[in-house]
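Budget justification aside, the reviewers requested a transparent look at the raw inputs and outputs of the sequence design task funded under Objective 1. We therefore reproduce one unedited record. The lines immediately below are the structure tokens for a 150-residue chain.
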């Protein structure tokens, strides 16, 4: 089935300008055009857009996404390289999730502090009660890289 650019925008939420950008930068193979020169996207194009969106949302640089999509088009001979790229992205994403979890825990502690302060009407009570909740330094690892959280 062929999809117009408007339909792809509605299905994916990706702006038309971004779709054209992806095509111009080689992330998306040149899209077939009908006899009137209008782009007609295929189900395969939609699958590729899903992969591009996922990689972009995990902070993979555009040039790496382009390279990955290029490798996808080269067939089975590039399976190992593609696997390595996806694994590297997974490691980076796990590290980012770990970092975000540490930030969330900090925000959670701050929220508890302000809950106490608001309930008592003063920061003095929050400081008195919160002093016992200060986080301990902990050691953890993400993919053999030591990270100390204080």
């Amino acid at each position: 089935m062929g999809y117009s650019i408007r339909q792809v925008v509605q299905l994916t939420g990706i702006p038309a300008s971004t779709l054209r950008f992806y095509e111009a930068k080689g992330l998306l193979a040149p899209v077939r055009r009908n006899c009137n020169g209008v782009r007609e996207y295929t189900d395969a194009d939609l699958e590729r857009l899903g992969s591009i969106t996922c990689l972009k949302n995990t902070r993979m640089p555009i040039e790496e996404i382009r390279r990955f999509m290029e490798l996808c088009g080269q067939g089975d001979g590039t399976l190992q390289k593609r696997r390595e790229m996806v694994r590297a992205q997974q490691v980076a994403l796990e590290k980012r999730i770990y970092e975000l979890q540490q930030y969330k825990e900090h925000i959670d502690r701050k929220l508890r502090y302000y809950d106490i302060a608001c309930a008592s009407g003063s920061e003095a009570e929050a400081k008195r009660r919160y002093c016992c909740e200060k986080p301990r330094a902990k050691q953890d690892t993400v993919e053999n890289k030591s990270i100390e959280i204080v």
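Residues 43 and 69 are 16 Å apart (CA to CA). The chain has six helices and two strands. Computational costs for records of this kind are itemized in the attached budget.
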